Amino acid sequence: MEVAIFGATGQVGRHLVNQALLKGYKVRAFGRNVHELNDNNDDLTLIKGGVFDDKDVFDAIKGCDAVLSVLGGSFDGTDKTRSLGIKNIIAQMKRASVKRIIALGGMGVLDHPEGGLIIEQPEYPEEYIPVGLEHQKAWEQLQASGLNWTFVCSPDIIDADPVGNFITSADHFPDGARTKINSGDIALFMLNELEVEAYPQQRVGIGMV
Predict the structure, then answer these.
(1) For the chain, which residues make up each domain, given as ranges?
(2) pTM value > 0.90
């Protein structure tokens, strides 16, 4: 298995890189500051590039089996990395004939039990709305892409190693879960989903128990 990881130097990205290598995958780690990663592994290729650059993204994806996207950015609505970045990743995946993508978003785009999305509810924190709208745009682009996608919709992320104490649910936040999750557990779930494909063309709610 060979995977391209976008956002490889972030909280979740670093765990994805390390866990994928432990599984024996070949990893292409993409980002602006990938030199921060330890590259003393023959199965790891560091690719310095910009997610808005067609050639950079295409070259990173071509020949891979799947893409893992954990793009980050600011929370104030001015940073379009999440929406425009995934748009370019989708376009270059089509050029490269790569079909499988697992991407990270936020729980605001999950369905609310009373209808609509969580982000549309009056009690949704106002400060999270700009980044939530970015996640919504990313999800909408995945829906329209024709790719085999899964959109992991996380609550607040704790920068910590995986412990496995989480549950998941399709399209909704899982009953009984706490609105927090370790970054290492998000990576653990994403790599497991890559193998088992339990949530094709679906959003996934995830949270600690």
Answers:
(1) 2-208
(2) yes
- Decide: residue 68, CB within 10 A, 0-12 exposed, 13-18 middle, 19+ buried: buried
What dotted CATH number matches 2-208? 3.40.50.720
Cα–Cα distance between 152 and 71 in angstroms, integer?
Answer: 12
Query: How would you class 120 by CB atoms within 10 Å of its CB: exposed for 0-12, middle for 13-18, buried for 19 or more?
Result: middle
Which residue in this structure is represented by tokens 């992320």?
157
Distances (CA, A) of 178 to 11, 85, 182: 19, 29, 11
Q: Is the dihedral of CA 95, 101, 107, 109 positive or negative?
A: positive
pLDDT tens by residue, 18-71: 999 999 999 999 998 998 898 889 999 999 999 999 999 999 999 999 999 999
Give the up-direction half-sphere exposure of residue 52: CA atoms within 13 A in the CB hemisphere: 6
Encode 151-165: b = buried (16+ Cβ within 10 Å), e = exposed. Answer: bbbbbebeeeebeee
Q: Do 27 and 9 form a contact (C-beta atoms < 8 A)?
A: no
